[in-house]
Amino acid sequence: MRKVFVLFCVLKCIFGDEIYADFNVVADKKSELVFEISGVVNAINVDVSSVVKRGEILIALDDKDEQIALKMAKNALENAKNALNFAKSTLDKFVLVKDEISKLEFERVNYEYKEALLAKNRAEISILELENKIEKKRLKAPYDGIITQKNVEIASGVVALNQKVLEIIAYPKVRLVLNIDESFLGCVKKGDLFKFRLDDIDKTAKISLIYPTINEKTKKFRAEAMSENLEVGRYGEGLIECIK
């Protein structure tokens, strides 16, 4: 049956503008996910085959110590703001009577104001550092996809940057890797329409990439087209409609 299909496609290529190609469905992206910071797994929100959205929290490490420190840092910031307001108010009053007080006294008040301002800035930086640390304890999906591998469980220890905890592939976006006879290398162009059929449904995709090399064994070159909602690993056949 396949020989008949190939012969039919060859004849169409000779007399028409369509070129036969077979293809494999591959993931558009594939990533091994790691934590930027060490810790102990506190929550796992996914499993193998879970469909996830970009930005979704997949795994979280325990952050109780950081949350406590963050509350303390926020209290410290409020105290620093109050101290700064008092120092600013005092400085404003001294500015009004600057000519009636000693230079040393004025410089002391001005110095206290600057110190209060620095203390507030340090408190704000401490909060940012803690919030950043807490954020790094939450592993998020880098793009829409499917989880293909999970290597940790609740209470597992995680080593920063050195331990793959999840593997994800992009979905529903996928790539079709087309195999095309070498004789058509100069015919196929970016933007050409690829027509194929899977599960009794007619589909189309535009050629987005053409590899300029030919496989020595198969005597074919590859091209790629983007598609959606197809299972990675599927195989199929179709026709490329060349742009004149």
Question: What would a concise description of this structure say?
Answer:
It comes from Campylobacter gastrosuis. The protein folds into 3 domains: 2-29 and 171-241, Beta Barrel (Elongation Factor Tu (Ef-tu), domain 3), CATH 2.40.30.170; 32-59 and 139-168, RNA polymerase II/Efflux pump adaptor protein, barrel-sandwich hybrid domain (OB fold (Dihydrolipoamide Acetyltransferase, E2P)), CATH 2.40.50; 64-136, Helix Hairpins (Orthogonal Bundle), CATH 1.10.287.
Please state the structural category. Answer: alpha+beta
Radius of gyration: 31 Å
Specify the oligomeric state: single chain
User: Helix tally?
Assistant: 3
Counted up, domains total 3
Number of strands: 14
Strand order of the largest sheet: 1-10-13-12-11-14
- In angstroms, what separates the terminal alpha carbons? 31 Å
Strand content: 35-45%
Regions with pLDDT < 50 over 5+ consecutive residues? Answer: none
Shape: elongated
CATH hierarchy class name of the largest domain: Mainly Beta
Gross CATH architecture of the largest domain? Beta Barrel
CATH topology of the largest domain: Elongation Factor Tu (Ef-tu), domain 3
InterPro entries: RND_pump_MFP
Family: Belongs to the membrane fusion protein (MFP) (TC 8.A.1) family.
Protein name: Efflux RND transporter periplasmic adaptor subunit
Organism: Campylobacter gastrosuis
